[in-house]
Amino acid sequence: MLFHPAAPLSERMRPHSLDTVIGQQHLVGPKGVLRRALTSGAVPSMILWGPPGVGKTTLANIIASQMRLPFFTLSAISSGVKEVREVIDKARFSGKTILFIDEIHRFNKAQQDALLGAVEKGWITLIGATTENPSFEVNSALLSRSQVYTLKALEEKDLIDLLQRALREDEVLKKRNIELAETEALLRMSGGDARKLLNLLELVTDTYATDPLAITDEAVMQVAQRRVALYDKKGEQHYDIISAFIKSIRGSDPNAAVYWLARMIEGGEDVKFIARRLVILASEDIGNANANALLMATNCFQAVNMIGYPEAEIILSQAVIYLATSVKSNASYKAIKMAKAVVRDKGDLPVPLHLRNAPTKFMKSQGYGASYEYSHDYTGNFSPQEYLPENIQGTVFYDPGQNARENELRNYLRKLWGDKYDY
Asked: Do 125 and 42 share a domain, yes or no?
């Protein structure tokens, strides 16, 4: 496939066959599931799930080309039910058609449901691309009619091979004397996105038009016109920075927390990854000391998904500062860890008879549910009956934290249970 010289480098270098695809050997290699499907001619509807710039659109184009079928592309950002139905109508009269929907996770339920009939009847072979887990973002009916293929993040070796291939094979670049002296800035600033990587390479080579040209990290950073901290979203620095971020919030330092947040945002960290960690932290490190923390974190997660960058950074900042300045408690975290340890140590202890369900006469005759005291029938909606298995009665899993809210909870539990539990 030939591209016009004026097309972006990422388009000029787009693979036109499975043999020229970078990475994804589990799908396109000699034993890859997509290669086998194409060879047999039985290509199912599918969801291609993976990070940006790893070849989802490229694979869709290759499949359509090799299957020699009509090919339609829709973007979930700009298309709706009307556009979907127009493609379905064309497919109904012209025969089997491939429909590629980029960012299918942005389709709402009605838009996704509009595809179901056509996929079931075989009018269209759907290829959806998403960066989000399809289990959460694609409705179950559509998911059950599609195969999910996971595309892996491109490894550093793959990306360097791509750069070298561009310098060696692109009709424009191969005429010049260009050397890849350093690659770290190219790799880090593109965030593992092959499209961004090639476009950045093109920007550098266009800016420095003289030959010979040695591409260095300094040259790349100057061309990009902003000196961002090199941030490896998959390497050691990724884990170090998220660790510093979480520990700063846990340590009630909003200044440090916002700084590490900024480092992640400037490094191109996934907004969902950051927000998801805040939801976890809200329960692990704050819990019932401030139950609103979980509400704040959950609302933050929902909001940033609707808004996206750059405005999402404001929402993240608000939530981070709220969580950092909130009273802390890890009592809920410790409670479930201790309970799981007891389960592993003691095994499957029998449920006390009075707590068992008794849907049959035989079970009732065996004492199931006998002597159970319905709490709402008693003063204060409370009956001091036993709820734990016999072998661990009196065990305290939840030890309220030392803060105003949980001190209230501690006093409440003491009032209910007296000396039964050591609160």
From this structure: yes
